[in-house]
Amino acid sequence: MAGWRRRRLECDQSPAGAVDCASPREASSSRAWRSQNLIDQLDAALNLNEATICGVSYDSDRAAARLLIETIALPEHGPVDPDPRRILVMSRISSLEVWLRPDRAATLGAALKLDSLHELERLFQSLRWAHAMYGWSFVDVTEPWDPISGPPSLRITASERPRTHTLRWFTECGRGQGPEAESFLLAGLIGFDELDVRRADDTPIGAEHFADEGARWWRAFSAHDERTGVDAQRQHSASAPHWRSGGDVGGVIVAG
Q1: Is residue 44 very low, low, confident or very high in pLDDT (cuts 50, 70, 90)?
Q2: Burial call 2-25: b when 16+ CB within 10 Å, e when fewer
Q3: Nearest-angstrom CA–CA distance, 2 and 37
Q4: Looking at the predicted structure, is the pLDDT value of residue 3 above 50?
Q5: Alpha carbon distance 199, 210 (integer Å)
Q6: Above 50 in pLDDT, residue 51?
Q7: Residue 215 to residues 62, 77, 135: CA-CA distances in angstroms?
Q8: Using CA atoms, how far apart are residues 166 and 170, in angstroms rounded to an integer?
Q9: Least reliable range by pLDDT among 40-44, 64-68, 76-80, 230-234
Q10: How many angstroms separate the CA atoms of 254 and 52, rounded?
Q11: What pLDDT is attached to residue 34?
């Protein structure tokens, strides 16, 4: 296993019913996280942990980037949301960087050149499998991370002004089968000022609602709620709509 990989999700239930995880942040059953700003809510609610990245686009006229994800969301009442697709819309973009690196089990290769976002989209279309993100923290992370060190595969600079926030994303992915199979780490860093969250049909739901759904899912998972159990996750994945047809995306989350 490549040395850059961080330990996967490990959770158990604490006496208070909170998610107790080996991470820089904890999901608490209290409502203290509500007092944070929306960017902090997005990260603290853990709704990006175990989210799968399915596409990235950039609108130069609006200086906005859109990140297509499939995530976990539990409404206030009833079962898990049957549609896991969400769009993170980041506005007032300062920069967008992407690293595409061959993953050769023992180490990561140098970043491969991408000529444009169109080429990146073709790569997403060609993937046979893509794994979910893990590691808990993705917004405004300041510590260095080897996979996104060095020159990127693709860089778009929209503004020279300092960026207010950053979002770090990645997926371990691959294409082909057998001897022809290729594995990659695809990662990115987006600098932005404002964030909105939308459903797949472009209906705005806002970052706070998005965060609520994520925190609620993890609390239910911690409490061994059958709606978030292994069988329920498999059934949901089999019936849910996906951004990309075919292939294998995401995975099942299990308690450690």
Answers
A1: very low
A2: beeeeeebebeeeeeebbbbebeb
A3: 35
A4: no
A5: 10
A6: yes
A7: 31, 14, 16
A8: 13
A9: 40-44
A10: 16
A11: 32
